[in-house]
Amino acid sequence: MPEKKKRDLKAILEDLPTKPGIYFFKNMENDVIYIGKARSLKDRVKSYFGTTSDPKVHNILAETDDIDYIFTDSEKEATFLENNFIQQYQPKFNIRLKDDKAFPYLKVTCQDRYPGIFLTRRVEPDGARYFGPFSPVHQARKTIHLINKSFGIRGCREAIPGKRKRPCLEYDLKLCAAPCVQFISESEYRSRVEDTLLFLEGKTDKLLRSLEHKMKEEAADEEFERAAQLRDLIQAIEQLKTKPTLISTKQEDKDIFGYSTAQNQVHLTVFRMRQGKVIETKVISRKKKKNVSDRSILSSELLKYYKRNPDFPDKIILPFQISREKNISTLISQARGKKVEIIIPVRGENKKLLELAQKNTEDWSRKESEVPSLSELKNLLGLKSMPQRIEGFDISNTGGDESVGSMVVFDEGKPNKSEYRKYKIRTVSGPDDVASLHEVIRRRYASLLTEGKEFMPDLVFVDGGKGQLNAALKALKELGVEDVAVASLAKKEEVIFIPSQKDGLRPKRTSSALQLLQNIRDEAHRFAITYHRRRRTKKSFTSHLDSVQGIGPKRKTALLEKYKSIEEIRNAPLEELAEIVGAKTAQNLLASLKDSKKTK
Prior knowledge:
Elements: E1 3-4, H1 9-13, E2 21-26, E3 32-38, H2 41-47, H3 55-63, E4 66-71, H4 75-89, E5 105-108, E6 117-120, E7 129-131, H5 137-151, H6 169-172, H7 186-201, H8 204-220, H9 224-240, E8 254-262, E9 265-274, E10 277-287, H10 294-308, E11 315-317, H11 325-336, E12 341-343, H12 348-368, H13 371-381, E13 389-398, E14 401-411, E15 414-415, E16 421-424, H14 433-450, E17 455-456, E18 459-463, H15 466-478, E19 485-490, E20 495-498, E21 501-505, H16 512-546, H17 553-562, H18 566-570, H19 574-581, H20 583-599
Parallel strand pairs: 1-17, 8-11, 11-12, 13-18, 18-19
Antiparallel strand pairs: 2-3, 2-4, 5-6, 5-7, 8-9, 9-10, 13-14, 14-15, 14-16, 19-20, 20-21
Helix pairs in contact: 5-9, 7-8, 8-9, 10-11, 13-16, 14-15, 19-20
């Protein structure tokens, strides 16, 4: 007997955002087996499900049971976050980035009398200023070159003062102001260092005003080469001013909490930053107690969280004030043996971190808010497992003419339109919805069995009453498929029929389970009636062509390929029609269409 599919990965794709971020492929044990980054999470993850001969992709998908993600503010941010998480989780299918090699930073040795700028992969508490990280590494080198050229900041470790009597080649290439031989005063050099720091800090408004003023001065003094350098620097500022949110050069330890509520559920997302890097996220979901404030809930959850996770940070970033804040801070600090600061930021880097945590929490809350309808439906119908995949059926006809059937698919409570199917009724004459439904369901699951597909839906759902329910059960029984749940929904009184309940189930109109079934029924009806109308229109179209003298099978086929409706032919130029059916027949066709319009 075919097994039921636990999770449809393609259904998860429809819920992915088009935002940048990192994604996680997880196996059935919820272990992370692969991590990647993306400019658009939906587009990137979808690409794994296309046609490919890459064995690595096939192996990843074979073990994947779930796909999770964290979205970021930019693709660059995602690049750094990907590196952090791969080093933390060491996923089996990731080859790159598993070592502890860090992204490059720029180091300005502000502790020196004549600071220099260098590339480094280590951030140390040595009094220097660090900026970054950068990716790829050539961007860091390009930035150093730009600063050398634009500000004359040295890139060597030459002793100052030293024994050198003349400047090195860097001065001749105009990449250094040569402080080693006093070609620039200490105060002027320090001024250039301050401009460099403004540039690297992204304080562009003040820096731009300063650079534009200097550029005009250089141009007025006919120092056009120096003015051009300043112009290039101004143009480069916009590309380099974006700073990553999820990495700090201050080597901080922080926990950032996002908080959201939906449908009596509380959701928290925790970003764990260690040594200046967000290395892990945790998601916590709780049932929200009635008459308890968000401030009290968050206070309680903080204590529970640190009781289970005693890896205390220096700072805890929260979205709002909590109840008993001083007491909570004291309790956590005592448990750590060192002060832990609780911060509710209003601006700055902490605020940006919190906003990103909040966005991810709200997205998780949105996804989870739709799950209760499936849980309620499981309990209502007495199902053995959650109905993750529901296939819904409907029939549409007009007096038995052009009867069609439709099948829609809802994965995890959401429509999966790529899985929809439509059927032209073959064996039933006249307006017999019950017999037509029997045919469609039999054809649907017979084809799955014939093709050797192993997975069946968790619930087969049909529009109608007991007659439609019995037709579905009979079709499945004829195929030997007897352990798939079946239900129907009668329209007038919204009664749900299942085999074990002869009188049907009558849930409240506000029931989320009923509303889900109504959505599936309405979608199946929409899909069926759209197909039915299309077939009726096409039949009317072809019937009219049959009545026009001079149009045989070949000309009829040519017209159907060119035009989609009678109205399109009626509005077509005579010369265009003549090229397809000849001048005389084109005139006959247009005259016939005009007569039919007058008759209507």
